[in-house]
């Protein structure tokens, strides 16, 4: 009989820690460059966002060229490259549906502190990838993009982390490219929906109208509020701006419609083919994915363990980053730790808790 272990974060979540003004401090090494220095391709709307973790992660986003084999398009692909370099299997952090690498703004620094080589990668069609050439952004293209990225830059079996729909991306990838995956970590996995369903049958003009609504501020605010546990209004609004940022890119609508019309991910019949060791992380109070589906997934995966985070909604790596980092570290223990003092010990008490 399996057991769901409920854990709590070591400190209240989410905490915003006071940061040193010294740009050469060890904390700045983990959290990135100056929060006021953004890459030239970043949207000017980023200046409105105050969250220091989002600002610092944006300062680390790079564009790496990836040539797709399915279309021969060369895509300048957005990602956060690792600070820590090691010979062990790297962590590759995906994101959920219509999101970006900024999901990892709180957890990625903690994983780096734990000694992981961690990459945060934007899935083709979402995030901040440059899609000026308007490549196909269907499931096949997304899979090919991730594989070509891995083949060009990572080149070792990876610990692939997929939250929400990113879990379907990870399962699809692991089945088609098992040589590229060492283990899977799936967070509040959305893997039982049958693609985009009837949305795939919509005329393109109607699909574009629906996609335009998808990026509206009221709908995004509602979705953000639904994804978390009792957010204060100001925090919910700030996090809405962060999740909506990539939707302002000129090719976002075309890429999203392309994914919708193609049919999306449908991996439920393939789950039992995943032989990789898998960690399932579930938020106790997820209002988007029924917790029963996490139990079902645990039963159907041949080699999985399941852990639950208490008082947590759909996106634990934003809401309870310390808990997620702890679970990942326990699942894939490091042989070594960085010889740096704890960021929490160094920077003192948490300023803001939710």
Automatic annotation (TrEMBL):
Keyword field: Hydrolase
InterPro entries: AB_hydrolase_1, AB_hydrolase_fold, Epox_hydrolase-like
Any GO MF annotation of the entry: hydrolase activity
Domain AB hydrolase-1: 91-326
Keyword Hydrolase: yes
Coiled-coil residue spans: none
Name assigned to this protein: Alpha/beta hydrolase fold-1
